[in-house]
Amino acid sequence: MVGGGWAVTQRHIVMPAYYPELTQDAAAGKRGAAFSSAHKGLLVDNHVHTKYAGHSAADSDIVSVRWAGLHRGLRVSLREHAPLPDGFELRQVGRPGREFPSVSTAVGLSLRDHSLGAFFVDCLDAGLSVGFEVDILGGRLDLTEELVAEVYRQARSFGVTIDALNCSHHVMGEAPWDFTPQTLAAAIGFCGGPAAFIRRYFAEIREAVATGLFQCVSHIEAPRKFDMSEALPEPPFSDVEDVWWGELERTLEALAVHGVALEYNTGGLTTWGRPYLGPPALALAVELGIRLVVGSDAHSPEHIGRGFVDAEREIATAGATEVWTFIAGQPVPIPLS
Ligand SMILES: [Zn+2]
Ligand SMILES: [Zn+2]
Questions:
Q1: Domain range annotation of the chain
Q2: Which of 106, 151, 238, 301 has the smallest count of CB within 10 Å of its CB?
Q3: How far apart are CA 185 and CA 181, in angstroms?
Q4: Residue 261 C-alpha to ligand 1 middle, in angstroms?
Q5: Which of 253, 245, 229, 237 is nearest to 191 (CA)?
Q6: Which CATH fold would you assign to the domain 40-335?
Q7: How many angstroms does the Cα of residue 301 sit away from the middle of ligand 2?
Q8: pTM for this structure?
Q9: 63-121: pLDDT as tens digits
Q10: Is the dihedral of CA 81, 85, 88, 89 positive or negative?
Q11: Pair type for strands 80-81 and 292-295
């Protein structure tokens, strides 16, 4: 870890006036705080992007995002793409179905312009919960730690509380793998085959989880998103399912050991045709006692809360009695009805 100076020392909880269900204890981030069980539904969408993502829909301004959450009875907790360290840039290649609009701008906020500060000001004005998706840059956790320290420093300077950091694996080596079937195939080739890709993917997630920087791991099953793609001659991992499940199991055990939550991401409905997590992974997560956090990965206001009714049913069927959100880095349970 860098310098020890990155932790949030000045907590400024922004209590959304439109979300009265949040108890005072929860708003104060107290251990044991809980959402009222009298309210039904998942209550919080824990993975929403805005126009600052660089590849969101044109109407993803903060006000529209806020109103879309209000309309669906959901508290919106943003997981905007964090800036990347100097020397890294993600630029979307192609257009994977309807998942993202076709754009050529760099993905994510930047430390080289004033976008991070503008994002913080917008979020404060709207009273939105702020969090980030932070990219795992394999082998360069030192850069990730410096980046996280800088994001916390700037948040403090704007009086913003960061509710959660999710770690997300989008990059293999120096290239994004998750944009299209072709980028995934290239990353598999770069690693030396599907089994090698899987082992490296999960090993890098386990390394990130062990740092203590993150509250949650996002869309862990995302490499399966192109399983049904007709652009590939065959499903990329069909010959190495045993490697996939062995590595997934080992990684979920690491999450349980480190107390890191796992995301149930309904964005998978768009490309994979089902949420990340599928039933076997969900069952294993519940069995291991891992906290589940639900997010839509919306890149457009219309996708906020997508699939949440089915998600709640699936999660309850798997045996979970609650899902979780984070306030100032502290886990807060949301009882399932
Ligand atoms: Zn992501
Ligand atoms: Zn996302």
A1: 40-335
A2: 238
A3: 6
A4: 15
A5: 237
A6: TIM Barrel (3.20.20)
A7: 13
A8: 0.86
A9: 999 999 999 999 999 999 998 887 776 655 555 455 554 444 556 677 778 889 999 99
A10: positive
A11: unpaired
